[in-house]
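chain below, 287 aa
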Amino acid sequence: MGLMRPPRLPCIALAALLLLAACAGPQGPPAPVAGAAVAPSPGDPPGPDLDARAPRGRSEVALPPDRASDPASPPRVLLLGDSISIGYTPFVRERLAEVASVSRPMRTRAEGASPRPENCEGTNKGARSVERWLAMDGAPFDVIHFNFGLHDMKRVDPDSGRNSNDPLDPHQAGPERYRRQLLAITRALGASGARLVFATTTPVPPGELRPYREPGDAVAYNRVALEIMEQEGVPVNDLFSLVSHSEVQLQKPEDVHFTREGSRTLGRAVAGAILEAMETADAGSTD
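prediction:
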């Protein structure tokens, strides 16, 4: 599945999302119409914002400055995302082993312990952490494949901020905060000089999910993300449509997470999107 170029987003990805939403039946309040203002969620818990008015990034740059002297070194790839991306990271590394160096944020819980993949969570954490991720080992990066969404749309207790199973509790980051923070994160990533690829958030299946997530929210939040990526000229890897249209069950029952084969399928799509971004960068560097 190739990358979706920004000018085609409204007629392909957005139409697919709307069609899926229509077929899914009633799922709470209707998703906002593309291009319409999105009202803040009542009780939206506080969270940091980056300055969304920052200059746009230069995602068309083929090589970061310190790579220019050694263009033969393997391209550096950064994966940013939640537990879904943690699941597909090994398969991306496997498929790109001969052509790129693939990194993702890691963390160490205790001194002497082996580092574990860091869950980048939602845009609240992304706004706090984007500069740290851009400065991690392996930087600067040539390609950054990123996603935020599943954590933003989960419900949290308005007092404690902890995960909630109550559908009446607010989102971790309501649609308007998600819009502001995702825009700021996207511009910060682009300003690094890397080529960007955004992955749409994978579906929220029906069932008793804990913490609570509304299946229709995946459509609404993806619509917001697609508008931002079109505005910023960032290609999109449409994992939502890949999973929704799959003839094979890729997700675990009543769970946003994936089976091993599901993660392998996502990894194949992510690796393909990264390869396409790398090829585009190579073509641009020879112009």
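Helices lie at 13-24, 83-96, 123-134, 150-153, 175-191, 215-232, 239-244, 260-285. The chain has one domain: 6-22+46-107+116-285.
thats it, cya
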